[in-house]
Design brief:
With about 350 residues, this protein is mostly beta strands. The protein has a domain of about 120 residues. The strands form 7 sheets. Strands 1-26-25-24 form a 4-stranded antiparallel sheet. β16 and β17 form a beta hairpin.
Length: about 350
């Protein structure tokens, strides 16, 4: 009943939003379309939009057990279908996921939390339906890692940075290398040391004909958070757009492109420990503006974010506790933001 009530309220709120005059930030709002859905509350999933659906891959439930390997999808954010309960890959925590060549790709990730067998992976898997997964390589050219950023750019998949050891490592395990592939099996190292500092849990997007990298840092043993912004036209030569963006330094946030802007949503920082519940956008990577709305999802990190059905969706994540709610934001096509 709670899910049905939330959906009805969401539909009414969405109609109201669409009928309102949407010329400025105050006329739009986030809408909850589901308070809880079919999959268990979680964070740190792989997420892609594929074949007209939002896909949720694996994730994290706690650090003292083997993580989930299930695959779920939804076209409306309310009704989710489980494609498989146990996918072929096993490193389901903080993987890198993209869509390329008519397939979903799942790369790297962490296995088994803080258990003795905990480890990062460098396997590369792909699927056309979320049920059957094919392993392109059990050991990619890049070292096993979690929290790497991934994009599709110039007809290739790209892996940028990441962390080789999650709970048991140090800063020597952080990477700022850049790799690309045309088939998922054979990887070429573009650079072993990009000018942006080694990091994990950062954002990467393709926007305005460039790869963009921003934020991120490290979790253990010493927290480090960045809010710098970099871009590149080839993955080798990088330009620092700003050392300090308008949003606070953070890790474990989401990043998408929507309405001609790059977006940064939520995340976590440890100075002091806090989740973020904010949404920032930029048309150039230099000037960032916060979208302030009356209603927004609770402060959280490692949520899944999609651009689907001409909306931004924020799904699940860690809001202390883990959640499985679903939110959406719809901006008019002529929305101009703050600049």
């Amino acid at each position: 009943m709670a899910q049905q009530r939330c959906f009805i309220l969401a539909a009414l709120a969405l109609i109201s939003v669409q009928e309102a005059a949407m010329g400025d930030n105050g006329s739009v709002d986030w809408v909850c379309v589901a308070e809880d859905v079919a999959w268990a509350p979680r964070d740190s999933c792989g997420e892609v939009v594929f074949d007209g659906r939002m896909w949720l891959l694996g994730g994290w439930l706690n650090s003292e057990s083997i993580g989930p390997r299930d695959v779920w999808s939804s076209s409306d954010g309310v009704h989710w279908s489980e494609a498989t309960h146990e996918a072929g890959w096993r490193h389901g925590d903080l993987p890198t996921a993209v869509v390329f060549g008519g397939r979903m790709w799942f790369m790297g990730g962490w296995y088994a939390g803080r258990l003795p067998e905990g480890c990062a992976g460098s396997e590369v898997w792909s699927s056309q339906d979320g049920v059957e997964w094919d392993c392109a390589t059990e050991q990619a050219g890049w070292s096993p890692r979690i929290g790497a950023a991934g994009v599709v750019f110039k007809d290739k998949m790209w892996i940028l940075g990441g962390l080789e050891q999650y709970f048991f490592g140090d800063e020597s395990h952080l990477r700022n290398d850049v790799w690309c592939t045309e088939d998922g099996a054979t990887w070429r190292q573009v650079t072993d040391r990009a000018p942006w500092s080694p990091r994990a849990f950062h954002g990467a997007l393709v926007f305005d004909g460039k790869i963009w990298v921003f934020g991120g840092g490290n979790y253990l043993p010493t927290y480090r958070g960045y809010n710098d912004v970099w871009c590149s036209e080839d993955g080798l030569h990088w330009t620092q757009v700003t050392e300090h963006a308008g949003w606070a330094p953070r890790i474990w946030f989401s990043a998408v492109v929507y309405r001609g802007c790059m977006w940064v949503l939520g995340g976590w920082a440890n100075d002091p420990s806090r989740n973020f519940g904010d949404a920032w956008y930029s048309r150039d990577g230099l000037q960032w503006h916060e979208l302030r709305t009356e209603t927004i999802w609770s402060q959280r990190h490692e949520h899944s974010t999609y651009v689907h059905d001409d909306r931004i969706w924020v799904v699940g994540g860690n809001a202390w506790p883990l959640v499985d709610d679903v939110w959406q934001l719809s901006l008019p096509q002529d929305w101009s933001g703050a600049g």
